[in-house]
Fold:
Amino acid sequence: MTSALRNIIYNCKQATFLIEKRLAGKITAAETLQLHVHLAGCSVCKIYQQQSILINQVFIGFNDNDFKLDQAFKKTLTEKIKKEINKN
Structure:
């Protein structure tokens, strides 16, 4: 098996990136092929794709202004994220 093929088959990070890129716009023919090959063997990414599509459908029609977070919440969330990152 070639290195390029192995990278496509075993790279879930790239697959999820392509799933989101496709939902946000267009992906190239080569990227479509890569994603198709990966999804043929990865049930986890198939589920991720289904969930991502569902999430996008739920939020269609909302304006960006509908999702503003207040500063206190942002600060608390940032602190929690930093704490989790620094655990290891």
